[in-house]
């Protein structure tokens, strides 16, 4: 059985507040952030835009990737987003279809 895990980055606005997370259901998880169902940082700082994500086949590598990204400098995260999403487009509509 093949599973897919996602490491994702949400933003409050282009080059705004960032949040890095991990999930096995990106559409559901981002939706939860968007409607404010997730208490904590993203709800407090209005971080709702899906601006970047990556996939991995197992939870261990997803968690390692998430932890690594969380340690990155802010400008490195901006660069990662802008490499594939220079307009900081909200990718939620692309993944929720």
Order of helices and strands: EEHHEHHH
CATH-level-2 architecture: 3-Layer(aba) Sandwich
The average pLDDT is 95
The biggest beta sheet, please? 3 strands, antiparallel
Q: What's the level 1 CATH class?
A: Alpha Beta
Helix vs. strand class = alpha+beta
Keywords:
alpha+beta; GIY-YIG endonuclease; 97 residues
Provide an overview of this structure:
With 97 residues, this protein is of the alpha+beta class. The protein has one domain (5-95): GIY-YIG endonuclease (3-Layer(aba) Sandwich). It has helices at residues 26-34, 41-44, 59-71, 74-84, 92-95, and strands spanning 5-11, 18-23, 49-56. It has a 3-stranded antiparallel beta sheet, with helices on both faces. It is globular. The model has no long low-confidence stretch (mean pLDDT 95).
Sequence-ordered SSE layout with sheet pairings:
Blueprint: E1 5-11, E2 18-23, H1 26-34, H2 41-44, E3 49-56, H3 59-71, H4 74-84, H5 92-95
Antiparallel strand pairs: 1-2, 1-3
Structure summary:
This protein has 97 residues and is of the alpha+beta class.
């Amino acid at each position: 059985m093949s599973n897919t895990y996602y490491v994702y980055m949400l933003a409050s606005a282009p080059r705004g507040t960032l949040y890095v997370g991990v999930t096995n259901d990106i559409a559901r998880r981002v939706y939860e952030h968007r409607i404010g169902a997730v208490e904590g940082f993203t709800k407090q700082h209005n971080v709702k835009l899906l601006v970047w994500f990556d996939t991995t086949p197992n939870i261990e590598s997803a968690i390692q990737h998430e932890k690594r990204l969380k340690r990155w400098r802010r400008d490195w995260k901006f660069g990662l987003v802008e490499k594939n999403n220079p307009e900081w487009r909200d990718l939620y509509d692309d993944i929720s279809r």
